[in-house]
């Protein structure tokens, strides 16, 4: 039996947490900012540091994988027995840019413990959450007396996530055979808040496009010609305005076809989360709520597809007045997609919809960016149940559910590998991802270690 | 009797046209570009040159009027008899910027005769059309044997028209008593084309505004918040899209209330103009027609009010993708107004309409620019009939009618002075206003001289 006794895990973690935190601090000192070409050497150093540490953890196979950009780290440790699932842990070792001059109270690349918090760029996003797997795995081995994990364990820790993972898709396609897994565990998300442990069950997908509209060959006088020729800025506005109906449902024909609807159980569990609307609005820095009729705010951002105008421009935008019919106008739109929506189909829907609505005399081109697929694991999936049990053992309280409104490369892993995606994360909204004073709560970090220590045994037992 | 014998006018013009053209060329050499602060001295020199020339023409009162910007020229010559109308001629002596490097075939400030055309910046807009009044007035005096014009004649030639006439309103209000007139003759427009003499009967008014919309306090993540908070770029689009209904009628409540509709006679006469749709579209550089249902292109641009998006901007407008709900968005709108529409009422209509449509959570401010009123003289107005007869005698053919789709400061004169506005101009669309290779057709310029010579007598006779 692979079930790990809780007390053994806890005492192992207590004995080793000081060295674990010292190691993490070493890693956090490496400014692995993938967006900054001058930091490419640091991103490589970060990959090599992690590879060395994974070898020290016991992984028999550890490799730094090159890409057309910055390197990823791959590690593998077979269970040594048949009939257990293969699990791939996903995370990233690159970080967002940071400088004390941005307003940090501490040096972002000099990890500093303040009270029960470890402040550093990457403390939560994502080095802390990658690193909890090292001590978690060792606690799992120590408490079970095993010499190898209870599952076939693989890690893929990429180095360009904060730069949009431009080479990730190619990498995993190239290495699909070695990455083959039944389950992907994404440790790059978080929980509801400090007092409410949760498990994320999915991420929305994303499709974005730019629509370029052309009218007259140059800006023309609106007094001489306006009202008799079509105006591309008006067309841009009409397209953007037509995205939604009066119920704030997306009005593109067939847009909702085939989507996986929220279950009643999921809606009930979402409703149990201590959602503070005023606090949420303050975080959003918004002054009002608006969204699809019939859904709560959490449902709208987690489980419903959306269409958003990210940018619009055309005509004269300087001070004062210029009475023109502009020569061109542009829209940047993005769509968040949920399970059941094929991005390729939605792309065609958008193309057809634009073509049908642009009036004679206005030229149009629609350019789509990269696609991110949605992913969703049902509440009753055995592997999700394992994840929930691991978290409940660590936190000793009921675990609720969230989803991610955003979109990540994790879904690519599901598509390429055909794997079920799980999320194991302990970061909280106050951790300051991409902002100043990023931190991780040390208590929660150690709960993450503990949950990771329980997960492999539970999965081996329940996901055969 | 003040009717001027045509042969006497023609022979006087023939005798003096060479000196007239030489004088005009002298004036055109002065680069009176009001938009260029470095040319302020040239604008002043232009005003003084004209003042001197008007003294030479015989005006007993000629003054250079200062403004907070660049100077205007005022001249006055009373008829010396009671019971005749007072007429104020309006034009401008400043010009658009021009440089040979812009693509001119000749030096823009070195007047050059090519075939039957005089090329120079200002040849048509507006020095040529101001200057034809000098020889026209002398021909009128010579042919009638009068020592003063048949009407009380005043001229106001401003120096900032090409810069938006920022000080014109204040000037005419300050000088309203001296400018008092029954009729204003605007010589700053033109005719249909070289073969189709026309008289303009009105100009549309204009109202422009900028609408500033604010959403979240900063750009926020569209994956985390989009679909649950209002997006100011969407609001901007919804406002711009809601300006028109499906018939391309303006959808603001009460927008059309009280407007002076086109008469059947006017529609018939517009329809007689040799309108070449393909040619018009080529001039517009547009690739299609679109406008209010039930009206022709000419009716749409001359006689119907319009609402135009001159500019729109908000959110991310750079390369690639930025998945945000933008913090703000902006619209620049302009409305062309026709007779019967009070700009102040329309301004309030726009304000109310915006306020009613902006959703909770989006802040808005609407800033209006300066107002230009519409003006329109009915086809059967006696003074308009006089203008038409003067043109018909000069051109010896039927004169049709146009309107100006644009908006000019002339309407201010009507409002301040309570005067009826007439238009006397001979410029044609090929003259290249505001463009390279501006020119005036010499034949037409001399027809303008001739029409001006006939007008004062006809008005004195028919507008008592």
Automatic annotation (TrEMBL), chains A, B:
Gene3D superfamilies in the cross-refs: 3.30.70.360, Zn peptidases
InterPro entries: Cyt/Met_Dipeptidase, Peptidase_M20, Peptidase_M20_dimer
GO molecular function (one): metal ion binding
Keyword Isomerase belongs to the record: no
Keywords tagged on the record: Hydrolase, Metal-binding, Protease
Domain Peptidase M20 dimerisation, first and last residues per copy: 209-359
Domain of life: Bacteria
One Gene Ontology term from the biological process aspect of the record: proteolysis
Name this protein carries in UniProt: Dipeptidase
Organism annotation: Streptomyces tateyamensis
Source species taxonomy: Bacteria, Bacillati, Actinomycetota, Actinomycetes, Kitasatosporales
């Amino acid at each position: 039996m692979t079930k790990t006794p809780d007390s053994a895990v806890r005492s192992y973690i207590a004995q080793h947490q000081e060295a674990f935190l010292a190691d993490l601090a070493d890693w956090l000192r490496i400014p692995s900012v993938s967006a900054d070409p001058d930091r490419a050497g640091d991103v490589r150093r970060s990959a090599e540091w992690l590879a060395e540490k994974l070898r020290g953890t016991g992984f028999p196979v550890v490799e730094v994988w090159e890409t057309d950009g910055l390197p990823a780290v791959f590690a593998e440790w077979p269970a040594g027995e048949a009939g257990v699932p293969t699990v791939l842990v996903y995370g990233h070792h690159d970080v967002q840019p940071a400088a004390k001059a941005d307003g940090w109270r501490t040096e972002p690349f000099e990890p500093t413990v303040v009270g029960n918090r470890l402040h550093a760029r990457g403390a939560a996003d994502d080095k802390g959450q990658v690193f909890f797997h090292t001590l978690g795995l060792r606690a799992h081995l120590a408490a079970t007396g095993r010499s190898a994990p209870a599952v076939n364990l693989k890690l893929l820790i990429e180095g360009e996530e904060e730069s949009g993972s431009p080479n990730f898709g190619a990498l995993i396609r190239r290495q699909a055979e070695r990455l083959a897994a039944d389950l992907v565990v994404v440790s790059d998300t978080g929980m509801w808040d400090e007092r409410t442990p949760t498990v994320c069950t999915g991420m929305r997908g994303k499709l974005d496009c730019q629509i370029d509209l052309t009218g007259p060959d140059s800006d023309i006088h609106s007094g001489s010609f306006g009202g008799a020729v079509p105006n591309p800025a008006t067309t841009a506005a009409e397209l953007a305005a037509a995205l939604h109906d009066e119920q704030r449902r997306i009005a593109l024909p067939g847009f909702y076809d085939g989507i996986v609807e929220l279950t009643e159980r999921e809606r009930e569990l979402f409703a149990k989360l201590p959602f503070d609307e005023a606090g949420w609005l303050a975080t959003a820095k918004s002054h009002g709520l608006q969204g699809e009729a019939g859904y709560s705010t959490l449902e709208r951002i987690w489980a419903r597809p959306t269409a958003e105008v990210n940018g619009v421009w055309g005509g004269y935008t300087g001070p004062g007045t210029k009475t023109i019919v502009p020569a061109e106008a542009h829209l940047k739109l993005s769509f968040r997609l949920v399970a059941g929506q094929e991005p390729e189909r939605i792309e065609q829907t958008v193309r057809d919809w634009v073509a049908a609505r642009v009036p004679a005399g206005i030229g149009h081109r629609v350019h789509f960016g990269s696609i991110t697929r949605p992913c969703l694991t049902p509440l009753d999936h055995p592997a999700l149940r394992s994840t929930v049990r691991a978290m409940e053992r660590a936190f000793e309280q009921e675990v609720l559910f969230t989803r991610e409104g955003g979109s990540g490369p994790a879904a690519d892993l599901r598509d390429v590998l055909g794997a079920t995606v799980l999320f194991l994360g302990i970061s909280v909204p106050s951790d300051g991802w991409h902002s100043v004073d990023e931190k991780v709560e040390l208590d929660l970090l150690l709960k993450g270690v503990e949950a990771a220590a329980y997960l492999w045994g539970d999965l081996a037992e329940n996901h055969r």
